[in-house]
Structure formats: C-alpha cells, structure tokens
Automatic annotation (TrEMBL):
The lineage of its organism: Bacteria, Pseudomonadati, Bacteroidota, Flavobacteriia, Flavobacteriales. One of its GO terms (molecular function) is nucleotidyltransferase activity. The keyword Transferase applies. It comes from Siansivirga zeaxanthinifaciens CC-SAMT-1. Keywords: Nucleotidyltransferase, Transferase. Residues 14-173 form the NadR/Ttd14 AAA domain. It comes from the Bacteria. Coiled coil: none annotated. This is Nicotinate-nucleotide adenylyltransferase. It holds the Pfam family AAA_28.
Amino acid sequence: MEKELEQQQSSCVKIVLFGPESTGKTTLSKQLSKHYNTVWVAEYAREYLQAKWNVKQKTCELEDIMPIAIGQMKLENNLAKKANAVLICDTDLLETKVYSEMFYNGICNSTLKKKALENTYDLYFLTYIDIPWISDDIRDRPNERETMFSAFENELIAAKRPYILLKGSKEERFKIAVEAIDKLLENKK
C-alpha cells in the first residue's frame, strides 16, 4: 500500500489547491490549467464518493479514505507525466489526511499520514471560506466552515508547507495565483 501512495518525481512546478469543501478549488484549478495550457489533477474523492452516493445514498466512511488516497496519487502520478511546466492539483494526500482526522475523531491511517508528509509540492493555495456555500450530494458541513478552514491552515503550518491564502472574488484569487506561479516558474529557469 505504501508504494501506491508514493509520489513520482517530476520536473514540473507542482501547485496544490487546499482547503475546505466549496471554497473554489476546482474552479481555480480549471482556470489555472487553462491559463498555463497544462493538465490539472481533479479531486478523486468527488468521483469516488459521487459514485458511492448514486448507488448507496451514503457519504464518505472511514473505509473509503484509503481507496480515495490511492486513487488520488494514481491520478496525480499519471497526469504529472502529461503536464508541461506546471501541474495543478485540486487536492493532495495532506488534504485527505485532514478530512480523515476531522471526520473520524483524529483517526488517519499511518501510511497515509507518512506519505502525506513525504510528498512534496512547490506551493499551496489555501482557499478561504468567503465564497458562498454550494450544496451537492457529497458536501455535508456548511455550518463548520470556520472549524474546517482552521484545521486546513493549521495542517499547512504544522507540516511547514509554503502557502498563500486566497480570498476575494474568482478574479482576485486567479490574479494572486498567477503572479505566484509565474514567480516560481521564473525562479526555476
């Protein structure tokens, strides 16, 4: 299982959109991938959990966490091979770790914890909760946005990950993100 959670090496700049549900991560991931003419790694959990909901009308359970983590890394590793200079990730294993611990009373698989901290990215964009909540079959914590946001930010701090807080409109977030990514690309030359 540990091998399935390993991040393959890549020369591209790796960016992660990170934060609570319904904070604009997917929207920004798509905008950035279009802007940089590259691929983006979708959140595997959405596909996995929507399929589960469609069949069983059940949301995420503890036994779903590891299949989600494995699916996420497989997707990321496959798309990293297709990326140009930038890979945009709608999530990562660190986010899966936060969700596991927040939803299941601090429980997180030890291999997932280890790999979430070993895998590396150039920059995280922490998305703030200042955009409207949009309900769907999978989202289930509209009243806990502040608590969830704090958990995500605390995780980035504890893991010593470089991050930029994104607030404001889609346009403001996009502008800040592009400036930061352009700077990383310039420094990589």
